[in-house]
Design goal:
110 residues, alpha+beta, 5-stranded mixed β-sheet, 3 helices
Length: 110
């Protein structure tokens, strides 16, 4: 599973997630909106957020995140999720949201 979110409207796709996770996604969208505009797509500068499961991480690591190490990993307070920042270029990042149990997989270089 891979759910791409780059605008606030995308939050409806993850409404079943814990409130702390949704709040973290909203904060990230706010930062992207302020710095890169509200009309961007997943291809535009700034980047986007992905909510993934194990299969989603494996797919991302074969394509978008191939050979890229995580820049920063944050535990999302009060949940069993983490937020992982990948800097793909100076003006493009992908923030991966996944369960804490997948941390070793997401840190692994393929």
């Amino acid at each position: 599973m891979i759910i791409n979110i780059w605008k606030k409207q995308g939050l409806r796709l993850v409404k079943e997630l814990p409130l702390g996770v949704i709040s973290t996604i909203e904060d990230t969208i706010q930062i992207l909106d302020e710095n890169y505009g509200t009309e961007r797509t997943t291809e535009d500068l700034g980047g986007y957020i992905v909510v993934v499961d194990k299969a989603g991480i494996e797919e991302l690591k074969q394509h978008q995140l191939k050979g890229i190490l995580p820049e920063h990993i944050d535990e999302i307070h009060g949940t069993d999720y983490i937020s992982v920042l990948f800097l793909c270029s100076s003006d493009f990042s992908i923030v991966v949201i996944c369960k804490k149990e997948l941390k070793d997989l997401i840190e692994k270089i393929d």
